[in-house]
Amino acid sequence: MEKTKDKIATIILYVISGFVILLLVAFISYILIKGGSSLTPSFIFGNPKFTEAGGGIGPQLFNSFYLLVITLIITIPIGVGAGIYLAEYARKGKILNIIRLSIETMAALPSIVVGLFGLVVFVQMAKWGYSLIAGALAITILNLSSMTRVCENAIRVASLGVKESSLGLGATKWQTIKKVILPMAMPQILTGIILASGRIFGEAAALIYTAGMSASPLNFSNISFIDKASPFAITRSTETLAVYIWKINSEGMLPDATKVANGASAVLVIMILLFNFTARILGKKLHESYTGKI
């Protein structure tokens, strides 16, 4: 009887897993089929004779990657640091309860609310205007709770069995965290980074109110983090690919807006898939190098 129940439960889990995979494959296939005809160099990089995407989606694609880099530079140190504190240093009490309540509350915040908060604080009060740094900070608020929880769980699991051994051999607590626990927790932490990256690529609501909806031509000969004419400036308005897809669908300014949106969506999905696969391969290599498997 118990074996029969176990087989039935196993079959049900396999069916659910297969349905999830099938749903993902169908979703990705639909987007790629609808937008596949637009995936040309002219569509991505621009061409004076090509008007379907207003000259190409190259600026929006670059803005998405650049926003990803800036946001991860802010999110990763804070998320990993918070995870280390909660897993290794925090003591049970009112302060810890307040921290966990704050993390749970941040995780439940709608992106549109975070966008309005960023509009008031970063755009208006800080007087940064619609800028890349304002958008990066808004996305950081959205991602910080999940990043912190992933890092905390990864560090807590990785420390089992090795923490006492390292301390017993004479290593300090920080040496144990830095040299033993963090390398073992790296694959799980990288998973959190991948999840955060997907949120950055696909987010639009929060960026509309903070990063803006204008994409100027890119002049890579001008390298500056302050001059708004430079593509690397964190103070310039930054229209990402997700925001661009929303804008052309909502405004209807282009005669072939549907085709452009389908093509831009296909590019966005391909970029996310490439990033996920690359990040997982890199994470595996890092884990093997830290654990001495190479």
UniProtKB/TrEMBL annotation:
GO BP field: phosphate ion transmembrane transport
GO molecular function, one term: phosphate transmembrane transporter activity
Classification of source organism: Bacteria, Bacillati, Bacillota, Clostridia, Eubacteriales
Span of domain ABC transmembrane type-1: 61-279
Source organism (scientific name): Clostridium algidicarnis DSM 15099
Subcellular location: Cell membrane
Stated family: Belongs to the binding-protein-dependent transport system permease family. CysTW subfamily.
Domain of life where this protein originates: Bacteria
Name of protein: Phosphate transport system permease protein PstA
